[in-house]
Amino acid sequence: MTRSSETDNRRTHRAAFNRRSLLRGLGASIVLPHLESLAADPAAVSVATAATTPSGAPLRMAFVSIPNGVQQKHWFPIGDPGEFQLNSTMKGMEHLKDQFQVIGGLKHENATAGRDGAGDHARSSATFLTGARARKTAGADIFVGASVDQVAAKSVGTATRFPSLELTCDAIRNSGGCDSGYACAYQYNLSWSTPTTPMTPDANPQSVFERLFGAGSPDERTKNYLLRQSSQKSILDFVLEDTKSIQRQLSANDLKKLEEYLVGVRSIERRLSSASQFSTIPNPATDTPDGIPPVFAEHIDIMFDMIALAFQTDSTRIASLILAYDGSNRTFPEIGIAEGHHHLTHNQSVQELADKVARIDQFYMDRFARFLDRLKTMQDADGSSVLHNSMIVYGGAIADGNRHTHDNLPVVLAGQAGGQYRTGRYLKVADQPMSNLFVSMLNHYGCPTKTFGDSDGELAL
Amino acid sequence: MSENPKMRWNLLSLAAIGWIAVCLHSNLSRADEPSLDSEPSLDSLDSKEPDIANILQQHCFDCHGNGAGEGDLKLDELLQQPGSEQTRQTWWKVLSNLRAGTMPPPDSGTKPDHGQINALAEWIKFEALEIDKNHPDPGRVTLRRLNRREYANTIRDLLGIDFNAEIAFPPDDTGFGFDNVGDALSLSPMVIEKFLAAASQIVDEAVPKTHLEIPETRFRAFDIRGEGGRNADNMRLNQPHRVRCTFDVTDPGEYTLEIVLKSGGAFEFSPQRCNLVCRLDDVELFRSEYGWDESKRDRKSFEFDWQPGTYQLEFDVAPIALADGIKDEGFADLDIESVVVRGPADRNFWKHPKGYERVFTRDRAPLDPEGQREYAREIFQRFGERAFRRPIDGSTVDRLVEIAEQFKQQPDTSFEAAIAHAIVPMLASPRFLFRIEEPDPSQADESFPRVDEFALASRLSYFLWSTMPDEQLFDLARSGQLRAQLQPTIARMMADPRATALVRNFVGQWLRTRDVEKTSIDPLAVYGVQTEFEQLLADFRRNRAGRRAPTNSDAPLDPEAEKRRNRFQELRKMQGMWDAEVRTSMRRETEMLFEYIATENRDLAEIIDPGYTFLNERLAAHYGIPGIQGSEMRRVDLPADSVRGGILTQGTMLTVTSNPTRTSPVKRGLYLLENILGTPTPPAPPNVPALEDSASKFQGREPSLKELLASHREASLCSSCHSRMDPLGIALENFDALGVWRDKEKDEPIDASGQLITGESFQDFRELRRIIATDRREDFYRCIAHKMLVYALGRGIEYYDEYTLDVLVERLMGHGGKFEALILGIVESPPFQRQRRAESSREDS
């Protein structure tokens, strides 16, 4: 392919490209979303309450998942909520202490074994953002629940060019069955648009970037983006008609699958028909990323950068990112850890191995801190930082990776949601469903919600 | 399946055996009668099936009846319940455990005899599960989307280009262990967007926009060759190189020759430089100097008036000596990225562009609009049938013609470009992306009609080739001859190079050969010398000179330093044990074993205990087998006492189940249970107790694996699974995480003895291997039949498939486990041949 051979060339281009240069000096050159235009556009006014801060700036929501639980005694802050100190895992978050809150005491009952037996990792990742219990199947009738980000994305609708962004830092899949009789879809996806349709995450920063801003060199991007739109338009007319003509001959099950296709096609169509609303396609003054970086930390950073960029340009207001799938047995040669993460978490009675788990927890947290730093330096339309106008959850649905507990989950909630959240605190709640947090977030986001997943109320934030 | 395979199938021997003829003989006469009252109960059993009642009473009710309900199973109550989806699921589990010999438990003191097991199994199948063996339910297959491998292969066969689907699309989710299962192949808006983008991109590259173009011959760096397998890619500037390419000129005229050179190098600057001399038929064409650069390209273009003949381009790279005092550091290189010969310029000699015949059927388009419309219809008719893998209807053709005509109205648009424009939406259509199947029109009213021959052609081609049907399959389907020619067709397909897809995709996922190349294992950590290595490395960094032997012969030899140097070299070598070559060789070892069994139509049980294997020098050295030289993998007969041979001893299986630093007997055991023995896992106990509780007994000391596992098994809740997995994994403890043989672990002799859940005991893995290949051979046949059926059908196995599986196993047992018996058996089976009628789809809740 023309494109893939170009990619290859860039890959062999050993000397020239420095990934670290990406996004350097961003911010200054970017087109910011305008408050005035938001207010003046009647289409935008209708969504003004959803996904909008009290000041009228865009409100962003993001979810970042970590695998395999954490070393709780290093992870959670020390001391009373009143006067707490960050623990060793969060050393790298110290300078951001006033930008986030740590929440203790949340649980995911639907991630426990219940009557479903083994398969805790797959089950946990399926439950993390859905609050629902995954139906145990190796692939026949996958069912869990719509995830919180997708519920929010529906309410934002066409206010942004993309309703949401789903990303992962895990590009490689293992063959064979997944975790103890659970379909792999549960383990490798975080976001679900319906209980049966996972939102496949993208691992390649280049393809994410090109999807957001167009392919090619910086001066060709916008042209290519518009070309793609017009090509999509002409394709859609044909395939919609074509789908109708074959619907008649299919069985109920087949129709369900075709429906997935149709929903996807319609969502692209909707986006295209609202495209005129976005007169300018932002064009970040930065190089297009060069495929997946070989170093894991760089891959994480660049995926975080993609979210930061999408937020800053108001290309989307909702994102989810899988740092590694739950059950990941990744090694960390960069920090001198040769053992697999999952293997280590089940050998924590040996101090040396437990210490390594703590270092991995810290490794992930450091990457997250860098992301928050980026968002903090990005100025938003209302003059505050993008981080100020965000609500970002970082955590997972396993608390203790050794014993596979699902209460007192590790949860960080970063950003002030445009002034709605009090940060810089350690919030300890008494054994509440994690879903209560999601109900609360959805309400703050402007999607009035009474229940979500297994919620039994709303978390007071 | 290999480069030049020969099928040695004795097709006639199997042809005589039809599907139905193989059906099992039922001990129960009732099974053959039409059963009107299909709800079994204990009362009716007592009167009609006293045997069944007795068997259950005698062997099962102690734990699962008369008030006892272990594992939530009360068989007497189950018998009273009317048949429902739920009771059938439960009876299915009973059947699986009975078959696998896991129930009744071997230590329960009760053991039904062979006849009793058979009688009970038959009763469950035909009565409790209500399987109608004359009209078995073919099951539902959810509309299957092409996965990304199938997509790329289909594009290759449809349009003749290599499309890199691994970059273009995210990985597909798998279900039941395979990535071609319809239910698991989801489709999010992002993926659809990528399909739309891919359609445009593919048409751009593959479909010509004109009917004539100036002929072009193109050489890439790899096509410009030198002595000893060298080529024009990455030619180091500090070494001399000579590479050349030759081309033929058939028509006289004006030609252009374009050469693109690229200078590159390591990240840091290198002072190396070279002279490049290019000669055309021994006459110097140009001479240039090149040095280190950041992938800088240099384009040269020449024009010639050439007569017909053979021409040769030769390139000479001569290093330039560095000035005194400049050190030759780092590296710099030069690629001859491409050489393009274009001509002759005279249009009379121009040719159809590459790929023209795949879409266009005539030499050129007519000039009049009516003729063009007619021709466009002809094109879409033919191309549409191939792209959609079944005839395309007239109204769709009309719409495509309309799209092309509309596009053609733009100024300066060729007919070909307009056709190309209309092909883009075809490649994004659900008819291309999904496999839409229709019933045979003559049986459309039956509840389980046969699929039509176009659908059958696709079922075959995606099963054996992971791609669309070829012209011969289409021809057979068009003429309605495919079913009649099934056996020769399968033989032909298995002999085709495309059948390697079955190895890469089926074996790749079943035996996980796909994973071995990306498995991460650290040899230094496996052998516990990581710290030692790091210390030595740090020492040498501090004192660079110590790393190499002193060159000054006057210097006194320091024996300590010498020892450390040697040790360092040793560890370096150890670090290299898990390199790309050994991993690829391991993958090939497993793949070649399967290929050999398939092409020679041998017994599938040779996957377990063949007495031979496939090795090259590198893998043989890894395994400690002497006398194998060279990099080529070949079949090697093993001595009777060899510890190698069979999947249990292959690097693939031993490493993909290991942790990065040590073996995992649990994972190995699970692999064998799931992929070789097919033993069903028991329903896992809810709330598995904390592992910490058992591990903390060792007070901070790292327990041996066997100790740790034994402590798991003490808890009865854990033991239900671990008593099945662990003995199998522990039997393989003589192979370390890298698959290398060892007699001891942490200085303790390895005790590989154990017992299977079914009662057979063994002293070491050799005995285990023999037990699987002989006593449990039927289990293995059932397991591979199960796996391949999932792969062939694209869905999980359901209770109503038990009869199909029985017939497959019977067929394998009756034909010495021959590969052909399995493939033919699957292709001829009702679920492969038939479908549920659209309205009749019974919802599987």
Low-confidence stretches of chain B: 1-41, 689-695, 840-845
- Strand percentage of chain B: 5-15%
Strand content of chain A: 5-15%
Largest sheet of chain B at a glance? 5 strands, antiparallel
Rounded mean pLDDT of chain A is 87
Could you say which structural class the secondary elements and strand pairing of chain B correspond to?
A: alpha+beta
Major sheet characteristics of chain A:
7 strands, mixed
* Count of DSSP-assigned helices of chain B: 35
How far apart are the termini of chain A?
52 Å
- Largest interface summary: A-B, 99 and 107 residues
Quaternary state reads heterodimer
Estimate the global geometry of chain B from the Cα principal axes: flat
Estimate the helix proportion of chain B, in percent.
Answer: 40-55%
How many β-strand stretches of chain A? Answer: 9
How much helicity do the residues of chain A have? 25-40%
Evaluate the radius of gyration of chain A: 22 Å
Mean pLDDT across every amino acid position of chain B? 87
Write the layout of secondary structure elements.
The complex is a heterodimer of chains A (461) and B (845).
Chain A: H1 2-12, H2 35-40, H3 42-46, E1 60-65, H4 72-75, E2 100-107, H5 120-128, H6 148-156, E3 165-168, H7 184-188, E4 192-194, E5 197-198, H8 205-213, H9 221-247, H10 252-273, H11 296-312, E6 318-322, H12 341-345, H13 351-377, E7 390-395, E8 411-414, E9 425-433, H14 434-445
Chain B: H1 11-15, H2 42-48, H3 50-59, H4 61-64, H5 75-80, H6 85-100, H7 114-128, E1 144-145, H8 148-159, H9 165-168, H10 189-206, E2 216-220, E3 225-226, E4 235-236, E5 241-249, E6 253-265, E7 273-280, E8 283-291, E9 296-306, E10 309-320, E11 332-342, H11 356-359, H12 369-388, H13 394-408, H14 415-428, H15 430-433, E12 434-435, H16 453-464, H17 471-478, H18 486-495, H19 500-510, H20 513-516, H21 523-526, H22 530-542, H23 559-575, H24 580-599, E13 612-615, H25 617-623, E14 634-637, H26 651-656, H27 665-677, H28 691-695, H29 705-714, H30 716-730, E15 744-745, E16 748-749, E17 754-755, E18 761-762, H31 765-773, H32 777-793, H33 802-814, H34 819-828, H35 830-833
Antiparallel strand pairs in B: 1-12, 2-11, 3-5, 4-11, 5-10, 6-9, 6-11, 7-8, 7-10, 13-14, 15-16, 17-18
Helix pairs in contact in B: 2-3, 3-7, 6-7, 10-14, 12-13, 12-14, 13-14, 16-17, 19-24, 27-30, 27-32, 29-30, 32-33, 33-34
